[in-house]
Structures are given as structure tokens and as C-alpha cells.
Amino acid sequence: MDTQTLASRLQALIRPGDTVWWGQATAEPLTLTRALVGHRHAIAQGGRLGIFVGIGQADTLQPAQADVFDFFGYAASGPHRQLAKAGVLDIVPSHYSHLPGLIRAGTLPADVVLVQVSPADELGRHSLSVVHEYMPAALDRARVVIAEVNPALPWTHGSRYLTADDIDLLVPAQYPPLDLGRGAPGEAEQAIARHIAGWIEDGATLQMGIGNLPEAVVAALHGHRDLGLHSGAVGDGIAALAEAGVLTNARKTVDTGLGIGGILMGGERVRRWAHRNAGFELRETRYTHDPEVLAASHKLAAINAAIEVDLTGQVNAEVAAGVYVGAVGGAVDFLRGAARSRGGLPIVALPATAKDSSRIVAALSGPVSTPRADAGLIVTEYGVADLRGATLSQRMRRMLDIAAPAHRAELERQGHALLRQCGAVFVAQPGPAAAA
Asked: How far apart are CA 318 and CA 308, in angstroms?
């Protein structure tokens, strides 16, 4: 189907005032989204269209498209950061786990869903391939479902499939699947990964955030045995663990023998591993982030990143240098789940510095994405600060121990003033040393 014909078909299905959703990151259906943005004036027919924005990977969306599109969403990462910088992205400061409920209730409108699917199986079922997340909720709510089928996508097991009867328009994909590239981890990231690997026990269940750091942690776990998977994001490193016989899911107390994920965020390796893999399923957000499921998971190790953490354990994962770059995301759900899991590890990891500025701070420069009451283990290349059950003064001492040495004196000075504001007393002598 040529681009002009596709645009005409989209115009016949999409109405002025509709809100359009599609999968985030690697799940973006490029054939459909590029046709939509390229012919947006004709498709919108003089009106406007709402566009929900998730994590970005392709550069499909541009600030200039705000001439027709009203951008709103929970994330401004990757290429979508330019939308936030231009002031055309309206942020939904919601926990990621709340999105499906907000969609199903109609609070977040979802009129049209653009989705990429695998070729149908012998039963005529197209899988959602690399993603479930909030897409099943959007599909349930949508008036129109438009799909592109890509033979290079894996057919994956999951809780939702589409048949011909579910799809209003099915077109062939014109582009290869999106890969989520990773840079090589630096020395700080490798040191952090070694610290975390030392805390994770054999048989633990893994939840990984996104980015280079979680992938570095996964790479440091090849000496472990019988690890399990229950995570939102699943990258190439997880596939490597499974192929090495490290990830078996054998000791999981929930979904024993089965790895669970929400989205494949990697490249060809993880797609190849997931294809028709009966030991792996994609599930929607209301399951991957379910507090009861997480709490019941065996030794859940929740490993998430941050932009900065203050001396009491408050986490900012959303704003850097005054620009919205992240999302509230699912970190709080997983950290709370790991805290309730028997033998669980609620972990927030970050390099101690960025461009010579400390990322361990006396006061956050952005919102509190994770409150200090949910802080567990904070990890930098200098060690692990275990804040569980710690008083404010103990937290401050332990956080100073994992800050970059060049910044510790100033942080301690600022910490005294902070504690006075909190009505606490600074403990001059060190508490338990930061674990190496």
C-alpha cells in the first residue's frame, strides 16, 4: 500500500478530536505513525488530534506537529524530550501502573489505537509481539484498531491476541523493527553492577528498569543460578542470561517456570529468544505491577535508576536541569513490592556524579518520584547505603559514605542544616559503613 493510499484509509477511520495511542519505544508501528504525522493536516480534517506519548525511541514526533497534535503523556525520555523542552507536551504525573485503569475508565481517552503485530499463527491469532503494557486497555477502549503486520517481529505468548475480526485496517510494515541500542557500560556502572550482584542471591526474581545500568547489572549475574524474571522491561541481557542457563524461573513462587515481562526493549537477540518461547509471556501492566503478585514473588530484586537521591532517600527520576526527562514510571510499585517480598531487595542505583556534579544531593532539584519512606538500598560506585529502618541521621551518614569523596564535605555541611529543619540530630560518628 503506497503512502497516499494509506493516508486516505487513515482519514476515513480517524475523526477530528480523536485521541490516538500506540506502543512506546520498540513497540512503535513506524509505518502507521509516519503516515499519520506526514499527512496529519488531511487526516485531522481541519481539527486536532490527541497523541499519547510514552518512552521515545524513533524521532517520529516533532514539536512542529503541535500545529495539529495535542501531545500528552507520562514520559519525556529519548527523542520525546524535545517535546517537553519546546513546551508542547502536557505531562500526566501518574504512576505507570495506574494507566490501564485510567484508560478503561475513560479518564484518559483512547479512540484510535495504532499497533504493530506479528504474522498470525495457525489459529489466526496475531500476537502483540514486543509489547503488552497498557496496550490491552487501550485496545479494549478504542473505537478503531489499525495494525501493521511485520514478518520480522516475534510471535510471543501473552494475555492478549488480535484476530482479523478485531482489526479495522491491517497493512504490511514498511520498516524493520526498532532496536533499543545500548552503550557500553562505564567504570562507574560496572562497579555499581558488581555491588548489586553481590547482594542478589541464587533463585531471586529480577525486575529491571531501563537503560545501560540495568543491563550492566544483568551482565554481572552470570555466576548466579536459577534466577527468575518478573519485570516491565526485558532487554538483550535477560535473553543472554536465559541462553546461558542462569535464568530458569525454577524457584519462582508465582508463575513457576515462566518469565514475565511487559515490553521487549532490546534488539534482535531478545526478539529471537522471545519468539514462540513457551517459557516467557508478555502481560499487561495491571499484572506486571500488581502489588500482591510482587509481594508474593520469591526474593524480588527490584533494580531501578534515578536522576538524583537526597540525603534522606528521596528520589527524583523525572526532572534534570529543569527539564522533564523521565517519568514517575513503575519504580514505586516495584520498590514497594520488593520491600514486601520475603528476602526482597528494593534497589535504586545511580552513578555518584554527572558532569562533576553530585547526584547525591542535600535537596532535590525536581519532584519526589519515590518518597523516602519507600527507600531501600541506594547504590553508587562507592557502595551500598541500606536505608531500611534507618533514622534520618543514620540515612545521612550512609548516604554520605556512597557520595563521591570530593562532594562529601559540602554535603555534610548542608546535611546539618537539613536535619535541623527536620528536628533531627546529626550523628557525628559513622553508622554501619556503606557495604562494598
From this structure: 9
385-403, pLDDT tens digit by residue?
A: 999 999 999 999 999 999 9
* CA 141 to chain centroid: 23
Nearest Cα to Cα of residue 308 among 403, 211, 228, 427: 403
Q: How many CB atoms lie within 10 A of CB 33?
A: 21
The answer to whether the beta carbons of residues 51 and 58 sit under 8 Å apart is: no
CA 421 to chain centre: 34
Place of cell 504525522: 37
Per-residue confidence (pLDDT) for residue 361, from 0 to 100: 97
Residue 145 to residue 276: CA distance in whole angstroms: 24
Instruction: Give the model confidence (pLDDT) of 322-336 as tens digits.
Output: 888 888 888 999 999
6 DSSP assignment: H
Rounded to the nearest angstrom, the gap between the alpha carbon of residue 396 and the centroid of all alpha carbons in its chain is 29
Is residue 428 over pLDDT 60?
Answer: no
Closest to 232 measured CA to CA, from 332, 348, 132: 132
Share of the chain above pLDDT 90, in %: 86
CA atoms of 274 and 285, how far apart (whole Å)? 18
The sign one gets for the Cα dihedral 406, 407, 408, 409 is: positive
Burial of 349 (C-beta count, 10 Å sphere; 0-12/13-18/19+): buried
Cell of 266: 532490546
Q: Which of 58, 57, 60, 88 is nearest to 73 (CA)?
A: 88
Q: Write down all domains in the chain, each with its CATH number in brackets.
A: 3-172 (3.40.1080.10), 187-422 (3.40.1080.20)
- Kindly state the helix (H) or strand (E) to which residue 392 belongs, with its residue range: helix 392-402
What is the value of pTM for the model shown? 0.93
Check: CB of residue 234 under 8 Å from CB of residue 283: no
Asked whether 164 and 170 are in contact (CB, 8 A), the reply is yes
